[in-house]
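Technical note accompanying the year-one report. For the benefit of new consortium partners, we illustrate the data format agreed upon in the data management plan: each record pairs a sequence with a structure-token string. No post-processing was applied to the example shown here.
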Amino acid sequence: MTLLDRRLNAFREDLADKRLEGRVEAPSFVAGSPAHVRVPVLDMRRTPSLEAGIDTQLLSGQDVLVFDENEGFAWIQSVSDGYVGYVGSNGLAKGASKATHLVSAARTFVYPAPDLKSAPTSALSMGSLLQVVGFDERRGTNYAVLPSGEAVIAGHLRDVAQRDPDYVAVAERLIHTPYLWGGASAFGIDCSGLVQLSMRMSGKTVLRDSDMQAATIGDPIGPDQLKRGDLAFWKGHVAIVTDPETIIHANGHTMTVALEPLANAVSRISYLYGQPTGYRRP
């Protein structure tokens, strides 16, 4: 049997994704049932326990496949990037998303009605997917109306088919976002989550973790070739090049998404984790 990455393939001792039949050993194989995220941010863990750390997060409207549910947890695989793990079952709704729009602002509020003076019912991160059933203008403000009757500022959304031309500019809109290990939203994000979310807004789907990104995104380049949009990798870390001398990254040093001179980062990080392992151009 070929050794498969458990982060990207749904198999365990008692159960496996039917698509892996013949590639892994398991007493039972099942086809995943389509579902989508119904809450603003849904934590994914390696094991079905709230004590387990967060491996990644899914955003409202993202599609998943559900392989098993037990004691409040669902064992799932994200449709967009293939990540496998456990989430709270109550954060999912059955069936694929019918999203027509996504949140393009860093963050936005959901109101109970088209009225910005009403108390918000929730807040959504950039990249969240929504089904819009109509638009309403009240006192000069345009609202996108959801199937529930709730409303979002229309200017904070865009059609799902639209793309940001510069993924680095997307990352720059997230400056000062708090650092969160496993975070993948504009409420809290880690280094590879920043790369993934920024690129997703530009229409490019990439894998979740920095080691996956270092192995699959673009082509290797030399440190003397750097330009805006390139990626710098260390062991367990990734940063986006904004210009040949500067990077933007979610990092545990400032505990935020921050700009930093590349030379400073290389010097600071090398003390604990060594020199950069490589540079890549998407």
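Partners are asked to follow this layout when depositing records. Residues 262-273 form the longest helix (12 residues).
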